[in-house]
Write a structure and sequence with these properties.
With 289 residues, the chain is α+β, with helices and mostly antiparallel strands. It contains 9 helices and 17 strands.
């Protein structure tokens, strides 16, 4: 007898059907509805929602700090037990800011990078026209996709300062590999934020770009006490000088999505980083010069 999870896995394997079901829908309206529905604090709604989630995904809550959740949203943004994500304390190591699956990896060349093989986009289309292309030329980029059942909070990859935040409102395309191979410049179209940070004694300039997706167009940043979403009416560019230590929590997504990490050319990619491989927050992503 075919289980619900098996049925969804078969649907996911059919790329045409997967793309239609997750993208050719009223994405923004459905995302707003999910934002409201997921926060309903009623045991029947919560229990039914979690049951459906478990039936279609590998939802593992054994690492969760809480054993009972107020709502579906409460489970989405769950914290982990202390020590569940050991932080690599090597002073040369720049850690992954989140759990996820490594996507496209490479160098920024002539102001271009890739969301998937054969699908380039320009850095200024992602980060805005005021970005200095020369500053990032030959620098590294690593795309990390956070699936729906993963831990959704993101953390500081090294000791440093959050210097500036830019918010870009946008669409909510799915960010799975199927959509990345079909929608040109997808990351440049979706809602996202640019976090410009300086790390280490040399103040190396690094950037994190959390990208929202269908059902997940909400990004929380603790340093600003701001929730970026379709309802956000605040400033689109915010200067700050917020210190953090390696592993400190920076914010969260309401569900799963993507974080793109940018680092200088002088950094070195960790030997374990390969496209398609899972990574956990706190593990080595790069090495400082």
């Amino acid at each position: 007898m075919m289980t619900i999870k098996h049925m969804f896995n078969k649907l996911g394997a059919n790329e045409n059907l997967n793309f239609l079901l997750t993208n050719r829908i009223p994405r923004l309206a459905l995302t707003r509805f999910m934002g409201w529905f997921s926060q309903i604090k009623h045991p029947w709604v919560r229990d039914a929602s979690l049951s459906v989630w478990r039936s279609i995904a590998d939802l593992d809550l054994t690492e969760a700090k809480k054993t009972k959740f107020d709502s579906l949203h409460d489970c989405f943004i769950r914290e982990l037990k202390p020590g569940a994500r050991p932080i690599n304390t090597n002073q040369n190591v720049f850690i992954s800011p989140c759990d996820g699956i490594v996507g496209a990896v490479g160098r920024v060349e002539s102001g271009k990078l890739y969301q998937a093989k054969g699908f380039p986009y320009r850095l200024d289309e992602l980060l805005g026209p005021d970005v200095s292309l020369a500053e990032w030329e030959n620098g590294w980029f690593v795309t990390i996709r956070i699936t729906s059942s993963m831990y959704h909070r993101f953390h500081a990859p090294y000791n440093g300062l959050l210097k500036r935040v830019k918010y870009f409102s946008g669409d909510t395309w799915n960010v799975n590999p199927i959509a990345l191979k079909r929608v040109e410049k997808l990351f440049c179209k979706n809602e996202r934020a640019l976090l410009e940070i300086e790390v280490g004694k040399e103040a190396h300039k690094v950037a994190l770009v959390p990208v929202a997706a269908v059902l997940v167009a909400s990004i929380r940043l603790h340093a600003l006490d701001a929730l970026f979403s379709a309802a956000y009416k605040g400033p689109l560019e915010i200067s700050c000088n917020s210190p953090f230590q390696k592993g400190d929590e920076l914010g969260w997504f309401q569900h799963g999505s993507t974080i793109i990490v940018f680092a200088p050319a002088s950094f070195r990619l960790s030997g374990a980083i390969q496209e398609g491989k899972p990574i956990k927050m706190g593990e080595a992503l790069m090495e400082l010069p």
